[in-house]
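Re: that chain you flagged

S.,

Sorry for the slow reply, it's been a week of failed gels. I finally had a moment to sit down with the sequence you sent. For the record, here it is as I used it:
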Amino acid sequence: MYHQIVSLDSQHHAAPSAGNGIAWYALWVRSRHERTVQAQLDEKRVVSFLPTVPKWSHWKDRRKRIDWPLFPGYCFARFDPSARLSILRCAGVVSIVSMNGELSRIPDVEIQGIRHLIESQLAFDACPFIREGMMVEVVRGPLRGVVGRLIRKSQRAQLMVCVELINQAVSVHVDPSDVEPY
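Prediction finished late last night. Pasting the structure tokens below so you have them in one place:
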């Protein structure tokens, strides 16, 4: 599920030109403030996108299906960088994701891909972004707590656990969903 105030048009889907600067940006927001930030962006007439996934929430006396943010702590907004101050003034916004002091644009195709996936009604869940060669930690299963280097990522990931001091290592196969970046 996503929300946006402005209807989609051809400019919305077009890659931003160097002249207009309007692009998608990720906003890092305080914990559990994603909807608050989105509401404030709506008030400012800023196009926003908060992808959500339905999950069951359990209380002592009941269960309820709630839409949780797919990427907790983040909300996406499409704006011109010259409007950054207005965005940063939204209660709950910590910062706009940037690199070396420059706001980091998100390609339209990535936002469209997430939208398409959400609208497809296929089963999906967020997963950590890991690559071969990264240090990872096993977070589930009998090897929980083990830290090593991800050697191969496929249906069965190969994890190498090293003792670098003596230049020795062992490898083991683990389920890729059981590891997270370390």
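What I noticed first: The mean pLDDT is 82.

Talk soon,
D.
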